[in-house]
Each structure stands twice: as structure tokens, then as C-alpha cells.
């Protein structure tokens, strides 16, 4: 039962992360265009600045859960690499329960409230030439944090399974 749930969460995180990674070339092109326009032609465009912020948020939020799933996130590897597998699983369980899930859950909860408020207002940029529909990026941020929390649940389940296997083998 749990293995199908973890596989589903992992697949959604992977597909979302891979889709978000395809936005990187567009982000780089937007930054490059913005720099050329500003420093070569002395043309500043609020639309391009906001677009690069939005694209950056899209990439980060869509790749968070995938980075955690593939263990390519920032971690104190000096300590983690020296631990036995059972100790690594225990540290993962404690970290997910006491750090990741409370943080990601709280941020997700508030992000969805912020998104719904922004959606109700049909919020756009406060700048006259800025991007419309700012609520879209707020929804992306809420979804990204929620997916990170779900990935935490998947990692927690797998770590608990590893702990159970390690303890049964030790007996």
C-alpha cells in the first residue's frame, strides 16, 4: 500500500522537476536580454525583471521536491556520509518529522491562503508596465511547497521501512 503511494509521489515530483528544469533556458535568455537592453542600449524594462523573478520562482518551486527525492539538495554530507545506513534512516525520519514537515506544512498552508486571496483580487503587478496575474506565481509557490511536503512523506515512509528492515536484520 505504502509503496504505491511513495512511487506516485516520487513520479509526480520527478515529472514536475523535469518540467521545471526546461524553463531554465528561457530564464537564462530573459536575464541575458535584460542585461543587454539595460547596459548596452540603456533600456530598462520592468516586464523583463518581473518575468525573470517569476521564471526563477517557477524553476525553484518545481524542482524542490525532485531535488530532495534524488538527494541532490544541500545536506551536511561530512556527517551524513560517515553514518551507518540505519543511523542515516533515523536521522532522515527525525529530520522529516521535526523539521521538514512542520516547515513545509506551515509555509504551504499560508501560501495557499495567500494564493486564494491574490486570486480573489485578480492581483497583478503594482507597476504600470508590470506583469498581470501575479496570483499564478503565488499558486506555483503554494504547489511547490505542498509537493515538497508530500515528498517528505514519501521519504519518511521509505526511511521507516529501512529502519524496520535494519532492526529486523539486527535481531
Topology:
Blueprint: H1 2-21, H2 24-39, H3 46-69, H4 77-80, H5 85-121, H6 134-170
Helix pairs in contact: 1-3, 1-6, 2-3, 3-6, 5-6
Could you explain how this protein is built, in words?
Helix 2 packs antiparallel against helix 3 and helix 3 (46-69) packs parallel to helix 6. Helices cover 81% and strands 0% of the residues. With 171 residues, it is mainly α. The radius of gyration is 20 Å and the shape is elongated.
Q: What's the helical proportion of residues? A: over 70%
Indicate the radius of gyration in whole angstroms: 20 Å
List how many beta strands DSSP finds. 0
For the biggest sheet, the summary is: none
Spell the H/E element sequence: HHHHHH
Q: In whole angstroms, how far apart are the ends?
A: 26 Å
The SS-based structural class is: mainly alpha
**Beta-strand residue percentage:** under 5%
The DSSP helix count reads 6
What are the low-pLDDT stretches, counting only 5+ consecutive residues below 50? none
Q: Indicate the mean pLDDT.
A: 91
The coarse overall form would be elongated
What descriptive keywords fit this protein?
171 residues, 6 helices, elongated
Quick structural gist:
With 171 residues, the chain is mostly helical. It has helices at 2-21, 24-39, 46-69, 77-80, 85-121, 134-170.
